[in-house]
């Protein structure tokens, strides 16, 4: 396989230097467009670097649509995702293994709203019961994907993006109500101890 010259150009609306979302890996940056000769055919490849995972992917231009690669969301999409995490968690009453598969599929869909639904549904505040290891893993994966895209769209650090997400999670009406109920229960315990 002879690697041809690197090109700085635009292919199917994607250009070098641009950040994109690749469903199975999250946010990456197109660093080059290369040509490779394979069995007498010339293939154009987008070179995508995922800094955080220390990984480089070469995607044939012809496969962009079929792998589900997409442009970053816009600020409206970010607002919609943050609005989603402020919503009421929706936990299906099915076996954990089934739910875990559904969460995994949402995370790997690359869809920002689907990922924010996983963050919303698996988030636990201090006054809620502990998560299982697998719940925590899925929550962390979804939070990481969501934060990376928000950071890229808002041109901020991932840490700032996580803070923004967590602030919105804490504003969810059901969480505010739960926090208020927990505080009331603590006050009643304190009063009983004082009596």
Task: Round the mean pLDDT to the nearest integer and report it.
Answer: 86
Largest sheet: 6 strands, antiparallel
Q: Compute the number of strand runs.
A: 8
Q: Gyration radius, to the nearest Å?
A: 21 Å
CATH superfamily heading of the largest domain = CarD-like, C-terminal domain
The secondary structure category is: alpha+beta
Task: Examine the coordinates and then state which fold CATH places here, giving the name of the CATH topology of the largest domain.
Answer: Methane Monooxygenase Hydroxylase, Chain G, domain 1
Give the fraction of residues assigned to helices: 40-55%
- Unreliable stretches covering 5 or more consecutive residues: 1-5
Q: What's the helix-strand series?
A: EEEEEEEHEHHHHHH
By CATH reckoning, the class of the largest domain would read Mainly Alpha
Q: N-to-C terminal Cα separation, in Å?
A: 82 Å
Number of domains: 2
Question: How does CATH name the architecture of the largest domain?
Answer: Up-down Bundle
Q: What characteristic shape results from the CA principal axes?
A: elongated
β-strand percent reads 15-25%
Helix segment count? Answer: 7
